[in-house]
Structure formats: structure tokens, C-alpha cells
Specification:
Shape of chain A: elongated
CATH superfamily of the largest domain in chain A: P-loop containing nucleotide triphosphate hydrolases
CATH topology of chain B: Glutaredoxin
Oligomer: heterodimer
Strand content of chain A: 25-35%
Structural class of chain B: alpha+beta
Mean pLDDT of chain A: 85
Largest sheet of chain A: 9 strands, mixed
Number of strands of chain B: 6
Order of helices and strands of chain B: EEHEHEEHE
CATH architecture of chain B: 3-Layer(aba) Sandwich
Strand order of the largest sheet of chain A: 5-4-7-8-3-9-10-11-12
CATH class of the largest domain in chain A: Alpha Beta
CATH class of chain B: Alpha Beta
Strand order of the largest sheet of chain B: 3-2-4-5
Shape of chain B: globular
Low-confidence stretches of chain A: 1-5
Number of domains of chain B: 1
CATH superfamily of chain B: Glutaredoxin
Distance between the termini of chain A: 47 Å
Distance between the termini of chain B: 20 Å
Mean pLDDT of chain B: 85
Number of strands of chain A: 23
Chain lengths: ~475, ~100
């Protein structure tokens, strides 16, 4: 990997979407990695995905040593995620060994070692040329044995042996009360430790991942949300951690030639982000639709996230102002994705967006309105998510437009939304409705536009059968 | 194995034993020595003992669920028992194998 050349440590791709970005290329090659977390946090799935993706994506055979679930249980459980253990085993890419410890059958009669385990592991690794190994969960051994001093030194020897063997190993461990794992495995695996966490906040289940330790490598230190869905585990962000994206100088239209005139460059920069704020009924969606249309006119794919209107309704409504979304949907230039914000957690929305970005590869993305998302998370989470979202869009050089609903007066809600979004947006346009002489007057004001001059005038407009029409001439 | 028999040995039927060792390790040798002594002393003609080196038969280790070495598996009479370690704790070994003595 190109970007890792500076790091002397060789890496093994994790097979977990998004985790390679956080760990700067993956796990330390040929070393054990500890994955810890409480029951049900996704440790076994994490481990299984590491193996399966290792086989399917990187052609690295793997050994799954299970101390808890039997081979048939594992096979059954992961079928729904599309992990075909039977097929991989038949192809000699995967070796599953179930280490069954029957406490009632065991009697300790003197000193022992773990050679039995070593031999099994060695045999499994050599029989398929494994590069990856999973031990899930080796702590189970402690339940079967009284003399834990020997066990501890043997486990230490095992991890050393795995290193010598040159396999990248995942060791899972259940979270203890005062330590990362019940048996303090973190003392033995010191190269890379990852903590998984599962909690419920406001009835929405959220999973978090944190790289606790990564010797000899830089890594993201935050808690990152992760998801378990039909594609397995995905960690957010799918973005870099730096502000190092390119900033094109190309100018594109806002979709309204008259509005373009209000900017010194006669338009906005490509791959910049526009924020449109305004109260209910100030034509935010219409402005967004003009922008979407202009993108389609350039024959650039456009992705429209609608959190309030169904695709049908949006198409119908925009047809009344002369914007024919139907046509561009048919020619596959426009893709409208509608969903209720509260239907899924914040991460799920972002994940859907990321997936659609990868699938459709749009040049323009519209999120209408972004304020809907804010209702489903707390402030810091939303802010973190928006930053990730913006980063993703910037890195992919995508034009972004967000609408945001504001309320009359200065409410707490207003503040949090604007605070979160406005500092991230390159161009901020505020829309207003005022009553004058028994008439509603619509107006638009450019609050800011990074890197270019813009009109300071409030511009009045009306909505016609052809969309937005400016009544006052624009001045720069 | 210094203790002498306290009386007549009582066991039901024949003992079927399998001792899994890892090569010539000192723990393995000790276990072999201990089990041989015990059988000779108490079980003449009433046992079947097989010693298996898991280094030479790595597949068996997995099939027989061997984790600890040395391990003595008591196959018969039921219930099965897995005696882990060098078999140095004679009383524990006798108890686990179901060997009792007439008073």
C-alpha cells in the first residue's frame, strides 16, 4: 500500500470496511491482535469476517479455532451474512477446529502444558497454509482448569509461538470489570488491542469501536461507530482523518444563472458544499432541485437523499415548476433515495449513503433536509457524523448541497444545527419569507461563500411555473 | 507412586485407557512412568493402555479434543474422564479412574 510506505510495520488488511483507514492499513502483519468487548458486541463476527474476507479478498487462508461454538453452530450462524464456511472448508481455504472443554470430565493430576492445542493449531495452519488465525475465546480454557499459573504462562508461550509462525492472529476476550479482558490477556497481547462496545442511547442501539493500543503505528484514537448489517461489520468513517483533500478551481452553476451572478466567480467551486437554511416553506427544496437539475444537465450523476418526501411526491412537485425529474431518473442520472430519519440510527443512514456513493458514484449529492438527521442523535454525535459525511464527499470530489430547516426565533435547536453545519459548509444561503403590504415576499441572502466574493444584497424572488425567478437584479 | 495397596482393588470390568503424550517431553515421560507403575501395582490383567504421541498423530489430537498434554483418557468404564497432567497426584488419579480398595 502506497500510503503506508513511511511506516516500517507491515500491515494485513482487516477485511472490516473502514477499519483499514483507521489503522493506517490494517493489523500488524504476523502478530496477534486482541479484540475485546462485552458479550454480544460482535467479537466473533469480527473475527469471522477477518478470516472470510482474508480468504475471499486477499487469498489468505485462515484457521478458526473456536472455544465456544461448535463448527456446525458457526456455519449456521454466519450463513445469513453470506459466509459460506462449508464451501471455504471444501476449498481448503478455511479450517475450523472446535476446542471443547468439558469441565466435569477434567481432572488435574499434575503439571501439564498446552501442547495439545499447539499441535492442533500447527496442524491446522500447515494443512492449508494459513496466514490468519482466530482464537475465539481462549479465555474459556480458564473455566476448565484450576492451576491457572501454568495456563497463563502457556498462553503467553502460545502468543509468542503464533508470532514465530508468522500468522496474523485475532484473539478475542470478554471484557472484565476493571480490565479489558477477564483474564488480563491484554498483558500478553501488546501489539494491537481493539475494544468493541455496545450500548443503547435513546432506544437506538449503537456500537462503537476504539483502537486502544497499536504499537509502532499511528491510528485514529476516537471511538468510531460501527454497524452490523447484512454485509457484516462496517466501521465509520470510510474517510481519512486529515484535511488533505484537493480543492478544484473549476466553477459550476448553482442551477440558477441569476444566482450565479451574485458570486464573483459566476458560480460556485466544484466539490464544495452548499448549505441552504430557512424556515418552513421558504423554497429550500426548490433551490436544491434546481441544483440537482443543473448537475443532471451536465450529465453528471446525482444522488438525492430525501428525508421528508417520497421520490414520487418529489417528482410530482418539481414537475409543477418545470423540473422534469422523471426524465433524468429514467436516464439514470438522478437517483432519489427516500427514508424516514427515525427509521434507522444515525450510523445506518451514513452507511447507506456511503454504500450508495460507492454504487452510484454520483458527482452531486443532495441531502434534504439534513436537520431531520439531527433529531435522531445527540449534538456531538451528529456533528461528528456530519464531519465524516463532509469529508467523504470532499475526498470523492462530490458537489454537496444540504438543506436545513430553521425555526422562527432563536431556539436551542436552531443553534445546534447551524453550529454543526455552517462551519462545515463552503457556501451558506439563507432563505426568508416576509410579509409586506399583505404580500409574501421571498428573499435570499448569501451568508458566506469561501474563497470568492459575493453579493451582500438580499435578493427577492418568486416561484413561477419555471422555478425560481429573481425579481431584483443581482449585483456582485 | 509410593503408597502401597490398602487392600483388594475393586473395579467394574476392564479399564480402557489412552494416554496422549507430546513426544519425549519430561512431563510426558513422567506421566508414562506413573501410569505404568499404577497399572502394574493395581490393575494386572484388568486394563488396556494405549500410549499415543500426538506429535506423530496431530489429527488425533483434534479428534479426541486434546488440549492439555499429557492427558489420560479413561474411555471405559463410563463416565469418560480426562486426566490432565503428569498423573503425580495418585489419590486423585485413582479416584478419577474409579479404583477403590476393600477396607
Amino acid at each position: 500500500m502506497e500510503k503506508n510506505q513511511k511506516e516500517s510495520l507491515l500491515k494485513t488488511p482487516t477485511g472490516i470496511n473502514g477499519l483499514d483507514e483507521i489503522t493506517n492499513g490494517g493489523f500488524p502483519k504476523g502478530r496477534p491482535v486482541l479484540i475485546c468487548g462485552s458479550a454480544g458486541c460482535g467479537k466473533t463476527l469480527f473475527a469471522a469476517q477477518f478470516l472470510v474476507r482474508g480468504i475471499t479478498d486477499y487469498n489468505e487462508p485462515g484457521v478458526f479455532m473456536s472455544f465456544e461454538e461448535s463448527e456446525s453452530d458457526l456455519t449456521q450462524n454466519f450463513k445469513s451474512l453470506g459466509f459460506d464456511f462449508e464451501k471455504l472448508q471444501a476449498e481448503k481455504k478455511l479450517h475450523i477446529d472446535h476446542v471443547r472443554i468439558e469441565r466435569s470430565e477434567i481432572e488435574e493430576t499434575g503439571e501439564y502444558d498446552l501442547e495439545g492445542l499447539f499441535i492442533r493449531l500447527n496442524y491446522a495452519i500447515d494443512s492449508i497454509g494459513a496466514k490468519r488465525v482466530v482464537l475465539d475465546t481462549i479465555e474459556s480454557l480458564f473455566s476448565g482448569i484450576e492451576n491457572t499459573t501454568i495456563l497463563r504462562s502457556e498462553i503467553r508461550r502460545l502468543f509468542g509461538w503464533l508470532k514465530e509462525k508468522g500468522v496474523t492472529a485475532i484473539i478475542t476476550g470478554e471484557r472484565g470489570e476493571n480490565s479489558l479482558t477477564r483474564q488480563g490477556l491484554e498483558e500478553y497481547v501488546s501489539d494491537c488491542v481493539i475494544l468493541l462496545d455496545f450500548r443503547v442511547i435513546e432506544q437506538i442501539a449503537t456500537r462503537r469501536l476504539r483502537v486502544v493500543k497499536y504499537r509502532g503505528s499511528t491510528h485514529g484514537t476516537n471511538e468510531y461507530p460501527f454497524l452490523i448489517d447484512e454485509y457484516g461489520i462496517s466501521v465509520l468513517p470510510v474517510t481519512s482523518l486529515k484535511l488533505d483533500y484537493k480543492s478544484p478551481t473549476e466553477i459550476i452553476t448553482t442551477g440558477l444563472p441569476a444566482l450565479d451572478q451574485a458570486f464573483s466567480e459566476c458560480g460556485i467551486y466544484r466539490a464544495s458544499s452548499i448549505l441552504i437554511t430557512g424556515n418552513a416553506g421558504t423554497s429550500k427544496t426548490i433551490l436544491a432541485a434546481h441544483f440537482a437539475w443543473s448537475s443532471c444537465e451536465r450529465k453528471e450523476r446525482t444522488l438525492y437523499f430525501s428525508f421528508e418526501e417520497s421520490p414520487d411526491q418529489l417528482v410530482r412537485n418539481m414537475a409543477t415548476i418545470g423540473i422534469d425529474f422523471e426524465k433524468v431518473i429514467q436516464s439514470k442520472l438522478l437517483h432519489i433515495h427516500a427514508s424516514r430519519p427515525s427509521l434507522q440510527g444515525l450510523e445506518m443512514h451514513l452507511m447507506t449513503l456511503n454504500r450508495l456513493l460507492a454504487e452510484i458514484k454520483p458527482r452531486t449529492v443532495i441531502i434534504d433536509p439534513i436537520s431531520s438527521l439531527i433529531s435522531i442523535g445527540n449534538n456531538s454525535e451528529v456533528r461528528a457524523m456530519l464531519i465524516r459525511l463532509m469529508d467523504t464527499l470532499k475526498i470523492n470530489q462530490i458537489n454537496a448541497l444540504f438543506t436545513s430547516l430553521t425555526h422562527e426565533g432563536h431556539s436551542e435547536n436552531n443553534f445546534s444545527i447551524l453550529d454543526a453545519v455552517s462551519s462545515l459548509a463552503d457556501t451558506w444561503i439563507n432563505l426568508k419569507n416576509e410579509e409586506r403590504n399583505n404580500e409574501r415576499v421571498r428573499s435570499l441572502l448569501i451568508v458566506k461563500s469561501r474563497g470568492m466574493g459575493h453579493s451582500n444584497n438580499q435578493q427577492h424572488f418568486t416561484i413561477t411555473g419555471k422555478g425560481i425567478h429573481f425579481t431584483s437584479p443581482n449585483k456582485k | 507412586m509410593k503408597e502401597k495397596a490398602k487392600g483388594k482393588v475393586i473395579i467394574e470390568g476392564k479399564l480402557v485407557l489412552k494416554l496422549y503424550v507430546s513426544g519425549m517431553s519430561s512431563k510426558s515421560m513422567k506421566a508414562i512412568e506413573n501410569i505404568n507403575l499404577l497399572c502394574e501395582e493395581h490393575l494386572k490383567g484388568r486394563f488396556e493402555l494405549e500410549i499415543i504421541d500426538i506429535y506423530k498423530n496431530p489429527k488425533i489430537a483434534s479428534e479426541q479434543h486434546i488440549v492439555f498434554s499429557p492427558s489420560l483418557l479413561k474411555k471405559l468404564p463410563l463416565p469418560q474422564k480426562m486426566l490432565v497432567g503428569t498423573l503425580s497426584d495418585t489419590n486423585k488419579v485413582l479416584k478419577a479412574l474409579g479404583i477403590t480398595f476393600e477396607a
